[in-house]
Amino acid sequence: MNKVVRPMKTLMCALCVILTATLAFSASLDEVLNDAKDGKLDTMPLIQALLIASNTPSADVSRLTSSTDAKMAQFTSGLTDGPNSKKADTILKNLKASVLKQYYPGSNYKATLEEGKFDPLWGTALLAYVMKKNNVDCSVIETPANYLIAVKDNGTEVLYDIFVGKDPVKPSFEEYLTKSAGLRSSLAFKKLPSFLLSSAQRHDCSRLIAGMLQKRLIQSVSEDNYSDYDAVFKKVNDTFSKVMIDQDKIVETISKKLNICEDPKQAIPLIRIARDTNRKVQVDTKEMNDNAVLASRKCYLAIKGQNDWTTMEKYLNDLKSLVPAEVYTPMAKEGYLKIFNSYWEKKDYSKSEKYAQILCKDLKIEQACPFLIKSQLKQVQDLTQKNKFDDALTLLDKILKQDPKNPDADKLKKYILETQYNSLKDRNDYDGMLAVLNKLRKAYPLDENYRKLSINTFWTWGKTYLDNSQFAEGIRVLTNGYKEFSDYEPLKDLLEASYYNYAINLAKQGNQLKAIEELKKANDRFGDASLQRNDLIADLYLQLSINAAKNGDRSTAMSYTDKGLIYAPGNENLLAQQDNLKRGKDSIEEQAIEFAPWE
Fold first, then answer.
1. SS3 sequence of 300-314
2. What distance in Å separates the CA atoms of residue 234 and residue 117, rounded to the nearest whole number?
3. How confident is the model at residue 298 (pLDDT cuts 50, 70, 90)?
4. DSSP track, 505-522
């Protein structure tokens, strides 16, 4: 049984180790920075942290970290107990013999481990990693020329450089700089800032991680990967103090890229990160800022040369917040003027208005303001021709608010309303015609023609209903007309005749009571002095009386007779009916009632 259990335990332990390693290698940049912010790594190996910081795929992080540990015996060959400096000598000698063979600027860790090509960052990191793995107490110093590793040895500090070796700064730091530069033939030194080695900070790992992130930032700029630059730059500045990264190199990289940039798609994000970097760095950024201005102008000229106004608009919108006003405004004035002219020539007045608005209101070009109104007036004309009268009037009101005394706008308003009126007239849309005429009368109160047209429209509309025996609708229309134009007698006469004939129509349908009700409404409206109307009321009551008598209801018949005599006291037929009812005789013969002619 034990023979079975032991292999299973061994297998489970191996799986645990693999699983633990896999989980560790899945760490994020945030976790690396959080671990390194105090200058030390507490939860992950240095090589793994640097691979993650360099944006290495997680599978490669796992493989390369494992490959490093697998070569540990090779790196520590001949290592014996003794002073830290002796151990450091052995480790550096082994590394130079195995993986630190050829200086290769910008090399990645895979090339270092597998091909022996290294740069100062990966070389120093590997040296520090192997030392710490073998309990050699060391820290990292970044100098203007290179990284140094400080090894503590019995209270003293011994320095190592992966190029120069042990004690690289003897006899002087200046000579070390020269020697280091000679070993790296591709390195061109500028004037170096003042540097005091004795007071320089010693870091466990953060200098190397900051250097790796700086390398990543430079690579992001070179590859136009600006989203990665934004994310990493923010994380770095939130985690470390501003001196942790060589800001000069970042600024120099952005500046060089800006100097050759002529593509607007690259320029805008590049200028944006230049602006954001400028806000956070502690170095002189004049050259970078000058090159950002240069790039903005070159890209503008490139778009202008292609007459690509869609790109021009987007470019100017994106650029506005990124460069100083004295740089942006001249380009914007010329650019938006060209965009405006292109749409004006195409007779796309809604678009040309937009750019005239920008030129006039935003850029304060007074010469553009008349074109703003002209663009809008052209739009009004277009809308009118498309029978979009309401939209045309809305835009026209907007114009008149800006320029109340504009004679063209006033004439155009009259033209729109009259065109709309004629369009509605062709469709016999009387309600719409009256609404438009009402606007015309308000806008031009001295023009008597619009009053006449309004009266005529009420007359024609009401008469159309009456001719089709739609008396209620005709009365409604004519009543509204009479309310507005009560001084127009023919309209009043037609309305009175409408009530009269409506009553006769109701009577012929056998609805004398409703007929009487309508006639009484007319009396209330026009007064009860109309003999014709009162005689008709009396005749309708006579009809009701005759019908009631025929049905044997002589009491009701007498009541109707009495009511009729109130309206026509001398009506011979009502008097005869009243006398017959009192004597018990039959009713008189019913009299025919005729329609009144239309006036």
1. HHHHHHHCCHHHHHH
2. 31
3. very high
4. HHHHTT-HHHHHHHHHHH
Stated pTM of the model: 0.59
Q: In the predicted model, is pLDDT for residue 10 greater than 70?
A: no
Task: Find the mean pLDDT for residues 16-30.
Answer: 53
DSSP run (H or E) holding 161: strand 156-161
Inter-residue contact 276 to 289 (CB < 8 Å): no
pLDDT in tens, 415-432: 889 999 999 999 999 999
Exposure b/e, 376-407, CB count within 10 A at least 16 = b:
bbbbbebbbeeebbeebbebbeebbeebeebe
CA distances from 179 to 77, 127, 174, 183 (A): 29, 20, 9, 6
Pairing mode, if any, of strands 156-161 and 138-142?
unpaired
Residue type, 508: K
What do you get for the CA distance between the two ends of the chain, in Å? 126
394 half-sphere exposure, CB direction, 13 A CA radius? 5
Question: Are 383 and 392 a contacting pair, CB within 8 Å?
Answer: yes
Q: What is the 3-state secondary structure (H, E, C) of 66-79?
A: HHHHHCHHHHCCCC
d(CA 399, CA 255): 48
Distance set, CA 582 to CA 33, 140, 556 (Å): 120, 136, 13
Q: Which helix (H) or strand (E) holds 152?
A: strand 147-153
